[in-house]
């Protein structure tokens, strides 16, 4: 019986320590003749960001995703058929009330009874299988941040002609307590490229298990 009780407690403990996940809302819009092919070069939407070491890492991750979907990566934007403009950001956060469940024993276990028969007092004990569940909650205030990623694919020839023609655009947004976008960037990028290019104009909510970076 004690062994079973320990197993139940262990299960509750593991459930409370389950890996976190990142929930991301994504949207995608593209032209009717959009095709996943050709050479593409990834650059930052803001020119000053291209020299950032942070962007260098994100750029590599974007290139890996685009290559896995069928594009060939061009290191020189001047030689690419398409330019993928990337931008990302995080806000300063907003306070939110969070309710955390408290787990405990909800029933069963050892019970005691008292009585008397013919003037003789007696006590008795009984035991039933204990049950466990939510016994209450604890409220706290947390700061929730909004993180976003944007991808715009533009026809390179149109850029050279001076009138940019966008063929694809995608947006990813998530909310959570991670205060740095680097901590959730990989999970959000995974959501952005899930079933790429995605259904045109549809909002999707995609959950990706956290890598534990934040």
UniProtKB/TrEMBL annotation:
UniProt keyword terms in alphabetical order: Signal
Pfam families, sorted: DUF4136 (PF13590)
Domain DUF4136: 26-198
Organism: Oryzomonas sagensis
Signal peptide: 1-22
Designated name of the protein: DUF4136 domain-containing protein
PROSITE patterns reported for this sequence: PROKAR_LIPOPROTEIN (PS51257)
Keyword GTP-binding in annotation: no
């Amino acid at each position: 019986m004690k062994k079973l009780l320990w197993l139940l407690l262990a299960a509750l403990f593991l459930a409370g320590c389950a890996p976190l996940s990142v929930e991301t809302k994504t949207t995608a819009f593209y032209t009717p003749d959009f095709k996943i092919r050709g050479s593409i070069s990834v650059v930052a939407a803001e020119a000053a960001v291209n020299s950032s070491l942070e962007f260098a890492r994100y750029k590599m991750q974007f290139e890996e995703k685009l290559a896995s979907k069928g594009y060939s990566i061009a290191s020189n934007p001047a030689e690419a058929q398409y330019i993928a403009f990337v931008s990302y950001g995080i806000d300063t956060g907003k306070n939110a009330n969070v309710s955390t469940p408290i787990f405990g024993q909800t029933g069963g276990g050892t019970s005691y009874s008292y009585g008397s028969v013919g003037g003789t007092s007696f006590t008795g004990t009984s035991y039933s299988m204990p049950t466990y569940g939510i016994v209450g909650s604890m409220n706290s205030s947390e700061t929730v941040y909004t993180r976003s990623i944007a991808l715009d694919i533009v026809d390179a020839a149109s850029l050279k002609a001076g009138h940019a023609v966008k063929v694809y655009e995608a947006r990813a947004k998530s909310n959570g307590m991670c205060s740095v976008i680097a901590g959730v960037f990989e999970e959000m990028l995974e959501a952005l490229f899930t079933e790429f290019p995605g259904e045109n104009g549809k909002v999707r909510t995609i959950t990706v298990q956290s890598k534990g970076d934040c």
